[in-house]
């Protein structure tokens, strides 16, 4: 009998638009000979099962069941294809844990931790992983621009501490521009991270676990036509992504080793994407952030890396679902 899989998309943040694109790729590539797939859209208006004709049916939040074709459907597992809150920050994971329903992402604790960029870098630093120097700001406590600049060297990146897709992020090269960048970031979140820029080339790598083995995907080098890899560069073609990256074996080994260590230290599950800056002078990869629900649209990096590995997305998504089912 086919396993019934809920493909969860949508969300409550600006990243919802990316979630819907990811959901299309995931749905089209989940093996329908093995799985019955039901798209669940969670948005500010409610939780809905959306069939292929666009008809909506409310989800029963008591047990995450739906009514379809005149009968009740209870799911065997959830494929989380939602970026931002509540699908990437641990909230849905905690809900599914309460229902004892397996899912394809990191657990609630890991998701909540890695969604907070400052706490992520703090844990990584304790584990001996290289990270940039930073200052963590809270809107309710206020801040002083001069104090920030006394602790960090320009240029710096200013970004919302929770969230992704580079929404609300700025690169600051002049002291007089810092206040404007902070205001922009605080419009997206009540916590902001100000981080020293690490000089070097930017790389990103997908990592996943299958049958207990941590497996790296081919590394991608990101070359932005903008000042940095912002929302426009990510989603509007203002960057080039080279997969697999053209780097020497020493760099490749160090990035893969760091990624595997990060996956272990943060107790990750499913596929995550880890971003690095490789500082050539120090011959060291610096971790930027961990994406526990990385983009899966046709233009996204993980699908690029899967194909570069010589695998099909259908096979890859099958592994992710089966791993979730086996480790429930």
Automatic annotation (TrEMBL):
The active site is at residues 15, 165, 300. GO terms for cellular component: cytoplasm. Residues 121-322 form the ATP-grasp domain. Its cofactor is Mn(2+); Mg(2+). PROSITE patterns: ATP_GRASP, DALA_DALA_LIGASE_1. Keywords: ATP-binding, Cell shape, Cell wall biogenesis/degradation, Cytoplasm, Ligase, Magnesium, Manganese, Metal-binding, Nucleotide-binding, Peptidoglycan synthesis. Mg(2+) 2 binds at residues 289, 291. GO terms for biological process: cell wall organization; peptidoglycan biosynthetic process; regulation of cell shape. Binds 2 magnesium or manganese ions per subunit. It catalyses: 2 D-alanine + ATP = D-alanyl-D-alanine + ADP + phosphate + H(+). Its main location: cytoplasm. Its EC number is 6.3.2.4. Mg(2+) 1 binds at residues 275, 289. It comes from the Bacteria. InterPro entries: ATP-grasp, ATP_grasp_subdomain_1, D-Ala_lig_Van_CS, D_ala_D_ala, Dala_Dala_lig_C, Dala_Dala_lig_N, PreATP-grasp_dom_sf. It is found in: Cytoplasm. GO terms for molecular function: ATP binding; D-alanine-D-alanine ligase activity; metal ion binding. Pathway: Cell wall biogenesis; peptidoglycan biosynthesis. It is an enzyme of class 6 (ligase). Belongs to the D-alanine--D-alanine ligase family. NCBIfam families: D_ala_D_alaTIGR, PRK01372.1, PRK01966.1-3. This is D-alanine--D-alanine ligase. It comes from Paraflavisolibacter caeni.
């Amino acid at each position: 009998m086919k396993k019934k899989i809920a493909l969860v998309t949508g969300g409550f943040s600006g990243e919802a638009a990316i979630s819907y694109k990811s959901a299309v790729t995931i749905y089209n590539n989940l093996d329908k000979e093995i799985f019955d797939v039901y798209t669940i859209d969670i948005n500010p208006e409610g939780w809905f099962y959306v069939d292929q004709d666009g008809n909506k049916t409310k989800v029963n939040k008591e047990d995450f069941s739906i009514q379809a074709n005149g009968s009740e459907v209870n799911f065997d597992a959830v494929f989380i294809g939602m970026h931002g809150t509540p699908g990437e920050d641990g909230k849905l994971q905690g809900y599914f844990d309460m229902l004892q329903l397996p899912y394809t992402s990191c657990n609630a604790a890991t998701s909540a931790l890695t969604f907070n960029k400052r706490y992520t870098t703090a844990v990584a630093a304790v584990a001996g992983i290289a990270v940039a120097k930073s200052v963590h700001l809270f809107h309710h406590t206020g801040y002083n621009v001069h104090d920030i600049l006394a602790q960090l060297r320009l240029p710096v990146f200013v970004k919302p501490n929770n969230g992704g897709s580079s929404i609300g992020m700025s690169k600051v090269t002049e002291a007089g521009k810092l206040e404007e960048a902070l205001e922009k970031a605080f419009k997206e979140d009540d916590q902001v991270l100000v981080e020293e820029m690490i000089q070097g080339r930017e790389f990103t790598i997908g990592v996943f676990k299958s049958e207990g083995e941590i497996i790296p995907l081919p590394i991608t080098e990101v070359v932005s036509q903008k000042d940095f890899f912002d929302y426009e560069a990510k989603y509007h073609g203002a960057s080039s992504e080279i997969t697999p990256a053209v780097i020497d074996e020493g760099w490749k080994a160090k990035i893969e080793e760091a990624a595997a260590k990060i996956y272990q230290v943060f107790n990750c599950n499913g596929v995550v994407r880890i971003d690095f800056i490789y500082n050539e002078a120090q011959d060291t990869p610096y971790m930027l952030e961990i994406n526990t629900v990385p983009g899966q649209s046709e233009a996204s990096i993980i699908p690029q890396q899967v194909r570069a590995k010589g695998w099909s997305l259908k096979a890859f998504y099958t592994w992710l679902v089966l791993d979730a089912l086996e480790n429930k």
